[in-house]
Write a structure and sequence with these properties.
Helix content: 25-40%
Strand order of the largest sheet: 3-4-2-14-15-1-16
Number of helices: 28
Number of strands: 46
Largest sheet: 7 strands, parallel
């Protein structure tokens, strides 16, 4: 079909056509030509090769001057590019002459240094993976990564782009097609002056041009309707082209549509009167004269992908402050953060946090004061009461809570003392027995596992009952610690009970224990609803007689008819899964017995107990070698995204969990998924099914009988299925943090990268949004402990030991209340707590991250937060490097801010109280006298420093120094003083 004749007529117009038609139009442009699209839609144009055109996606210098089709994101179109691209790329071709001196000069201009980046070995020149062999000046042989080539384009050394002053779109000529022009940044339009433009979509003031394309409605998985239409089109002699994104779908459609004898072709077009299948991830579909263009997206789903990808930003990053957050100042109390404001005071420009208090009172706090602030977990759905400025209200609240806290602390210490005074059994080391279990462990213990094991064994050796919580992510090796503790206890002739929340987990742990204890003289029993009656009777008799050494079971273990001859250790897995009555029975059992709790997301109350010293806590935060974080996507429910996620997992040989937490509609959801992804085999499990069938279905899924397991949250703790590396969770906003975290822990158990999709309605309450953002932000490995802390903030802690503390916690926040409690416990124990040091830093220096440099308020807030939280100079350097890579060279004010961050860290280490300035000197004050410093080195500094006794510290003369030199001069001086 020849469209080129019409082309001149629709330039300068808007075309309302399906995306697949837009791709066809663009593919038939005379190169060079450019198509710009939002980042998330680039994938829709990657397969233009199906229409026969060579295409570069987000091209760089290597593609400049090529006569081809170029597809770029809007952001890439605005990326820095050299004014003279020819000076920044070197085309190397075999047979051409390259005089040695000119070549070396060219390398230097492109940022490559001799011996550091490239080596000259006689007639051979090696630069990274590129090897050039010359005969005189003629390039005789060219190899790239060991592969022989005729031509290679060498680009400048990474980092040189900072010097580029032009924009990429200006250097790639030809007509410009704009996909979804409404999303084009306003900076793009001035760069298109004089170019022929075609808008593919609305949102721009260009006249509409009708190409006569009739868009087709989505089939939503109804292949019968598709078959009816195919029969009609082929009867009419039309050319029907169906573009398929996934190989698995291609195989499926070949079988399903075999009646129409489809041909799989490499290039469009196919023959008339024939159904042709092509590979291509286009969307939409339409009838255009004799052409019928269909896509996989049109056949199986609706709409385009609109999702927010969230990848954990590292656990050290406290996350961005957002306007509306509630913050606590130690002196002024709870205020609401309104944003950042730049102010100039006496010629010095600084950024200030603006906090609103009761009665519209406002506090302007320099960003350097961020470390003083704590977050309050309140949301705008459930706001805390704001404090009044200057009325002492906050201090009165704290005083009231302090009295309550002192009573609670006394009770906690009495309980702890009782536990320490209760006679228990000691299980000392057994040199011949202990090593027998270590041989069966196939991996090295991680450092955290080693420490947790040492702490558990130390507790077992003590003559009073152990009460320890091991907190660690799913798959981080908590079971291994429990197994070795059980081994020690059994070695002393005592019994071990391992309590788990589900039958499947009991079976799994039973299998693990039997494998590891194979060949050792002990008997293991598994007690659950699946245990045959005769076997159950034998296990119960064995426990009473002492012939069963280890029993693993569900709440069946808590029944009155289960009696032990000599119970030495109780292990409780995921305590939060047991009810109140069951927890009471656990308390009875553990009164004089060593108890070990295992949890991936300890419930807030359990964690709270551990935080304030009621339980001992061991934390396993190190992932096993090779484990990768789980990539987490938040998105409104989108059938196309569901289909793509499932197919991508199946195509890499994996399996998928799909969580639909409504038993009543789970069968309807299965039928929906069968239509949406007919290529997949789907198994279903939920809590109303007979438990035997649940277990059988899960085992079949693990063994490969099903590709997708559609389930309720029953799979929260279940089988470890190594091949399952994608999970999709519907209505994630309805689920609690611990549940979401456990569900996500079903995937990512191996080295393969795992994906979690959390679907939610278009509108969310603020608490639900916070919860989902929390789980997405904490996609780093080892974040279960942090997640429980966030859960405490969002939900509160309930009552600990009976008295109502929730009111105090709500008013003060958990963090402030915990600090008061910890302080009271230390006071009663007679321990002295070292005060946290805060350095007062007041220098006349413009220091901030300018909005022109970091435009996003959220990003600036995040960097300020991270710099405030930084504890080492290395962390500050990492943040500086990140800023340079993301935003380019640091402006002077940003350099100053980072210099002050370094100065504050060093001053804290040295014990400095304050750093201030007057007209002639910089004054540094310490809390003590005499000072320990290198007097000789002090005299050799290039500026004058005078130690002072009143106040204790030193004065540094400003003469000859510019304000931007102050931090460096102070650092040089402080390094000569001993740490405080």
């Amino acid at each position: 079909m020849e469209i080129a004749l019409e082309r001149e007529r629709y330039y300068g117009h808007r075309l309302a056509v399906p995306q697949v038609v837009a791709a066809l139009l663009f593919s038939q442009e005379r190169p060079p030509a450019v198509l710009l699209a939002p980042e998330e839609r680039l994938g829709r144009y990657r397969d233009l090769g199906a229409f026969g055109g060579p295409v570069y996606v987000n091209p760089g210098l290597e593609a400049w001057e090529e006569r081809a089709l170029f597809v770029m994101s809007y952001g890439e179109a605005l990326a820095p590019f050299p004014e003279d691209p020819s000076a920044w790329r070197l085309v190397l071709e075999v047979g051409r002459s390259y005089p040695r001196g000119e070549l070396v000069d060219r390398f230097l201009r492109m940022g490559y240094a001799r011996d550091e980046d490239y080596r000259v070995l006689g007639e051979v020149l090696e630069l990274g993976e590129v090897r050039l062999e010359f005969f005189g000046d003629e390039l005789e042989r060219l190899r790239v990564a060991g592969e022989e080539r005729r031509r290679h384009v060498l680009l400048p050394k990474p980092g040189k782009a900072e010097a580029f002053s032009s924009r990429k779109i200006l250097h790639f000529p030809g007509p410009v097609y704009l996909d979804t022009p409404a999303l084009a940044p306003k900076e793009v339009w001035p760069l298109l002056g004089g170019r022929q433009v075609v808008a593919l979509g609305g949102g721009v003031e260009l006249p509409l041009w009708d190409l006569g394309v009739r868009p087709l409605s989505p089939y939503r998985g109804s292949l019968k309707a598709l078959e009816r239409d195919l029969a009609r089109w082929l009867e009419e002699g039309r050319r029907v082209s169906l573009f398929v994104a996934h190989e698995r779908t291609l195989d499926y459609l070949k079988r399903r549509l075999a009646l129409f004898q489809p041909q799989v072709l490499p290039r469009f077009p196919g023959p008339k009167g024939q159904l042709s299948l092509f590979r291509g991830a286009f969307e939409g579909g339409g009838e255009w004269g004799e052409e019928v263009l269909l896509t996989e997206a049109l056949v199986f789903a609706t709409g385009a992908v609109r999702s927010r990808v969230r990848v954990g930003e590292g656990l050290a990053d406290p996350g961005a402050l957002s306007p509306g957050d509630f913050l606590i100042h130690p002196e002024h109390g709870v205020g609401q953060y309104l944003g950042l404001e730049t102010r100039e005071v006496l010629g010095v420009r600084r950024d200030y946090l603006v906090l609103r208090y009761k009665g519209e009172g406002k506090l302007y706090l320099p960003v350097e004061g961020l470390p003083l602030l704590k977050r309050h977990p309140g949301t705008t759905d459930d706001p805390p009461e704001l404090s009044s400025l200057g009325k002492g209200e906050w201090q009165r609240l704290k005083e009231k809570a302090r009295k309550d806290v002192e009573e609670l602390a006394a009770r906690l210490l009495v309980l702890q003392a009782k536990r320490k005074a209760t006679p228990g059994r000691a299980f000392p080391p057994l040199p011949e027995w202990d090593p027998l279990i270590e041989r069966g462990f196939p991996h090295q213990l991680t450092p955290d596992q080693k420490q947790a094991l040492e702490e558990v064994l130390r507790d077992l050796e003590a003559p009073f009952p152990m009460d320890r919580l091991i907190s660690g992510d799913v798959g981080f090796g908590k079971t291994e610690i429990a197994l070795r503790a059980a081994h020690r206890v059994v070695g002393h002739g005592a019994q071990v009970a391992f309590l788990v929340p589900t039958t499947l987990l009991a079976e799994q742990h039973g299998k693990t224990f039997r494998e590891r204890f194979a060949g050792l003289p002990l008997r293991i029993g598994v007690l659950s609803r699946f245990t045959p009656v005769k076997e159950e009777e034998a296990i119960l008799k064995g426990l009473e007689a002492g012939t069963v050494d280890v029993v693993i079971g569900t709440h069946r273990l808590l029944q009155p008819d289960v009696r032990f001859k000599d119970l030495g250790l109780l292990i409780v897995d995921e305590e939060h899964r047991f009810g109140v009555a069951q927890k009471e029975r656990i308390r009875e059992l553990k009164a004089e017995v060593d108890t070990l709790y295992l949890s991936a997301t300890p419930i807030p109350r359990t964690l709270y107990s551990a935080l304030v010293g009621l339980k001992d806590l061991s934390s396993i935060k190190t992932p096993p070698p090779g484990r990768k974080p789980i990539r987490t996507f938040l998105a409104p429910f989108d059938p196309l995204l569901v289909r793509e996620a499932i197919l991508l997992e199946l195509e890499r040989g994996g399996k998928v969990f799909y969580v639909h937490d409504r038993v009543a509609s789970i069968e309807a959801r299965r039928r929906y998924l069968e239509n949406l992804v007919p290529e997949a085999r789907i198994g279903v499990v939920h809590g109303k099914m007979p438990e035997g069938l649940v277990e059988e279905t899960m085992l079949l899924f693990a063994e490969g009988a099903y590709d997708v397991l559609l389930a309720t949250t029953i799979i929260e703790s279940g089988l470890d299925v190594g091949e399952a590396n994608t999970i999709l969770i519907e209505r994630a906003d309805r689920l609690g943090l611990a549940t979401l975290y456990q569900l996500r822990g079903r995937v990512g158990r191996r080295e393969q990268e795992a994906y979690a999709y959390l679907f939610h309605p278009p509108r969310l309450t603020e608490a639900a949004e916070k919860r989902l953002n929390a789980i997405a932000d904490l996609s780093d490995l080892g974040s279960g402990h942090l997640l429980a802390e966030k859960d405490m903030e969002i939900r509160g802690v309930g009552n600990l030991l009976g008295p109502e503390q929730h009111g105090h916690i709500r008013a003060l926040s958990l963090e402030v209340y915990s600090e008061l409690l910890e302080e009271a416990i230390r006071k009663l124990k007679g321990e002295v707590r070292e005060e946290k040091r805060h350095v007062t830093l007041d220098l006349g220096l413009s220091a901030r991250l300018p909005a022109e440099y970091v435009p996003s308020l959220e990003a600036r807030s995040r960097y300020y937060s991270r710099l405030a939280e930084a504890r080492t100079l290395a962390e500050v350097s990492r943040i500086a490097k990140e800023l340079k890579e993301r935003y380019g060279p640091l402006p002077e004010e940003a350099e100053n801010f980072l210099a002050l961050a370094r100065l504050r860290l060093v001053a804290q280490r040295k014990g400095v109280v304050s750093i201030t300035e007057d007209l002639t000197h910089l004054q540094v004050i310490f809390p003590r006298w005499p000072l320990d410093y290198d007097a000789r080195a002090l005299r050799q500094l290039p500026f004058r420093v005078e130690p002072t006794q009143y106040p204790p510290g030193f004065r540094l003369e400003k003469k000859g120094l510019k304000p931007r030199d102050y931090p460096e001069a102070l650092l040089q001086t402080l390094y000569l003083f001993a740490d405080g």
